[in-house]
Specification:
With 199 residues, the chain is α+β, with helices and mostly antiparallel strands. The protein has 5 helices and 6 strands, in the order αββββααααββ. The longest helix is centred in the middle third of the chain and has 16 residues.
Length: 199
């Protein structure tokens, strides 16, 4: 649900609505600063799903395509560990909306590995970006988000479609597979699978 909400936010930034339909006059927005501190969770009193509403915040580094065309691009304030290529990105891919897709993937890596430095796991991005114990479906979605070459990453719309398709496959008839964190007998952070059959 969390990864779906993040992907839907990127679709909105790109298209001006959450359906992914082009809106006449909409100038696509590149957030450029997606990391855990800029993701807010809220609870709606009329929300029957029990899941929090995910909101993307802090648009101080955001730019539009027009901003790139006119070179009106503010300095990037983003956390270094939430960029696939550290430092300043210049050249091909700069200003590409799929840069936000990679940051979305890095947020999921950070949450699943319980780390503030998801780039530290980049050697595992192709095979096990989330770590051991996570579904093949999550691994496939994350591997696409974390492609080093921008043109190989999915667009926000394709990412949203993939997340939804994989969620349906995982949920199936057996319930939703979730993970919970806990402290094991040695005092280390660990995670275990929980299957929820009713929502």
């Amino acid at each position: 649900m969390f990864s779906e909400a993040l992907a839907q936010a990127l679709v909105y930034l790109e298209h001006g609505n959450d359906e992914g339909v082009e809106v006449e006059g909409w100038d696509p927005v590149l957030h450029r600063d997606i990391w855990h501190a800029n993701i807010l969770l809220a609870h709606d009193s009329d929300n029957s799903s029990g899941y929090p509403r995910v909101q993307l915040a802090d648009f101080g580094s955001a730019v539009t395509r027009e901003d790139y065309a006119t070179k009106n691009v503010p300095a990037l304030r983003q956390q270094w560990h939430f960029r696939l290529r550290g430092g300043t990105v210049t050249g091909p891919g700069e200003g590409d909306l799929r840069e936000d897709v990679s940051q979305d993937g890095l947020v999921i890596v950070a949450l699943s590995r319980i780390t503030m430095q998801p780039r530290g796991y980049r050697d595992e991005f192709a095979n096990r970006p989330a770590g051991k114990g996570y579904s093949k479906e999550l691994t496939e979605v994350l591997a696409g988000c974390l492609e080093l070459e921008v043109e190989n990453r999915p667009s926000a719309r394709v990412l949203l479609d993939r997340v939804r398709a994989k969620r349906v496959k995982v949920e199936g008839d057996t319930g939703v597979r979730l993970w919970e964190g806990y402290v094991d007998e040695q005092g280390e952070l660990a995670k275990r699978e929980v299957v929820v059959t009713e929502m």
